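Thread: "does anyone have the structure for this chain?"

Original post by V.I.:
We have the sequence but no experimental structure in hand. Need at least a predicted one for the grant figures.
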Amino acid sequence: MPELPEVETVRRGLQPVMEGALIEAVELRRPDLRFPFPHDFTTRLEGRRIVALGRRAKYLLVHLDTADVVLCHLGMSGSFRVDRDGDEASPGTFHHARAKAGKHDHAVFHLATADGGKRRVVYNDPRRFGFMLLHAEGTLDSHPLLSGLGVEPTGNVLDGMLLSDLLRGRRAPLKTVLMDQRLIAGLGNIYVCEALWRARLSPKRSADTVAGKSGTSVRSRRLAEAIRAVIADAIAAGGSSLRDYVQADGSLGYFQHTFNVYDREGEPCRREGCKGTIRRTVQAGRSTFHCSSCQR
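Reply from O.Q.:
Generated one for you, tokens below.
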């Protein structure tokens, strides 16, 4: 499933085309994805202008001039592509390949862009686990899908003090707790594995042991810095589960080639001086990759 940096990469790829564009027509080629499309979806979008393209955790937010917001989730196989005069560009070609077969094109947005051009933004989703909903801007934070989300793992809000507060008293394994979207929003499996390696912390240790008894701790500060850094590095590279994504400026996203632990079972640890081997275990139904030699 796409994680936060992948969704942010998609947002940045769509932003130059969609922001300021007029939605001339919307084609829905089926009545539903994971959920049914709102019954008035096309009528509330057609003739409206897109004023901003945002993101909250793993959700893409399309803000309209009517103060409506389209709430999008890519699910497990969803992707957008931009068509112009027969040319196609996909903002985000994922490590697990995204389909382009026309039979999976479920929604098409016909746009008159801010620069006077014409574009089609096509949503393709073979497994149909993605969705698009509508909600009023003024009450967006109270939407059931957003209201319970935790802090974003970007910027300086997530620091050692806050992380200590979030982890204190939680006896479950550290990795399992970090995956809880009610605590840290958008932090997924790949990034938890990579951040724990950077912070030299075992995914199996009790989450409470990272928190200080009161205030911050060395471990919580180290982990908060690692989380912010790995997310920032992945966004800068175009997303860590992206396959050689060509960004708007023509550069390629190769962050997946810098994985230190994720998907490297049986390979040597990349930490200087460590002679350990990357292991794979399963926690809460998800693969965990770590080095038991240097992660304690």
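V.I.: this helps a lot. Residues 93-98, 241-254 have pLDDT under 50 and may be disordered.
O.Q.: and The longest helix spans residues 218-236.
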